[in-house]
Each structure stands twice: as structure tokens, then as C-alpha cells.
Amino acid sequence: MSIELNHTIVESPDPDAGAAFLAEVLGLPAPYHFGPFTVVEVAHGTSLDFMTVAEPHSQHYAFLVPDDEFGVIAGRLRERGVPTFADPGHRRPGHNTDDGGQGAYFDSPEGHNLEILTRPYGSGS
């Protein structure tokens, strides 16, 4: 049996807003409600289930995106005035070219440290 991640819970004071932000920025289908969650389907049956938490704990979520989508997503972030950074500590503005691809970090409305990257770590030439 192969093991795949099915879902994880994302803490948010406003699950609908947080889920909508993520879906819009990444170009994913609109979120839907399932029980107490606002669900964003990411890929291959994996979902991020946004749950109401008054004071969320910051988490890191990284998304592997195709090369041709990286610029599109970065453009959506620029349109929304969301700064991007080359490093997880948000010290260097812009994006990186680690592992022969591109990567950028940005904050979600809840304060989660999100990342888009075009190559998995350690896969570069």
C-alpha cells in the first residue's frame, strides 16, 4: 500500500477568507464546506481543511507548482499587494532560484508561512 497525505487542518480565525485567499492565489477550485471545515482541494485528493481557531499557530505549507505557473501565482500575489521573499525568514525580498528552480515565501491572512516552489529540495543540478 502506498501512503499519501489526505488532508491537514489549517487554523484560521476566518476559514472562509483564508481558504478563498489560498484557492484564488494558487488558481485552485473554489473552497467548499464539509462539516465545520472550509475545504481547499489541492491535488490528487489532498485537501487543506480550514478550521476556526481564534488565535492560530503559524504553520508552514509548501506547494510544488509547475514552472509555467510560478510567474502566474507571483503575479496574483503582486496584484493583492502580498510581498514575497526568497527565504523562509522573510529577510530577502523577491524569490530564489534554489535547486535550479524558483521559490518564494509569503504570508497568508492568518500569518501562516506559505511557499511556492518549482523543484523539490535536493533535486537541483
Automatic annotation (TrEMBL):
Residues 4-119 form the VOC domain. Residues 82-112 are annotated as: Disordered. SUPFAM superfamilies: Glyoxalase/Bleomycin resistance protein/Dihydroxybiphenyl dioxygenase. InterPro entries: Glyas_Bleomycin-R_OHBP_Dase (IPR029068), VOC_core (IPR037523). It comes from the Bacteria. This is VOC family protein. It comes from Actinomycetospora flava.
